[in-house]
Amino acid sequence: MSPAQLSDDDLAKALTDLPEWTRQGDSITRTVEARSFLAGVELVRRVAAAAEAANHHPDIDIRWRRVTFTLSTHSAGGLTALDVALAHEIDRLHASE
């Protein structure tokens, strides 16, 4: 069973705690700038491990030091609490690098 989609109001409230994330249709996205290419790759590795543990996987685009994360729960056809939780974890991992 897929998790329930968030209502627009619930998503708006969740994004107040995720100021670096923006909604783009049925996804939320954030681009971070790492201090080096290797630091960006290491961040992706750490996010990948967290995503695997949560069984919820982001789309990731690496462009030199810029890493873009896009989250959506495809099985639910939109945004769910899984996306919000992973966004918080990505923020935590980025802040700790």
Automatic annotation (TrEMBL):
Q: What class of enzyme is it?
A: lyase
Question: Sorted alphabetically, which CDD domains does this protein's record hold?
Answer: PCD_DCoH
Reaction(s) catalysed by this chain's protein: (4aS,6R)-4a-hydroxy-L-erythro-5,6,7,8-tetrahydrobiopterin = (6R)-L-erythro-6,7-dihydrobiopterin + H2O
- Per its record, what are the GO molecular function terms? 4-alpha-hydroxytetrahydrobiopterin dehydratase activity
Q: Which UniProt keywords apply?
A: Lyase
Q: Which family does it belong to?
A: Belongs to the pterin-4-alpha-carbinolamine dehydratase family.
Q: What is this protein called?
A: Putative pterin-4-alpha-carbinolamine dehydratase
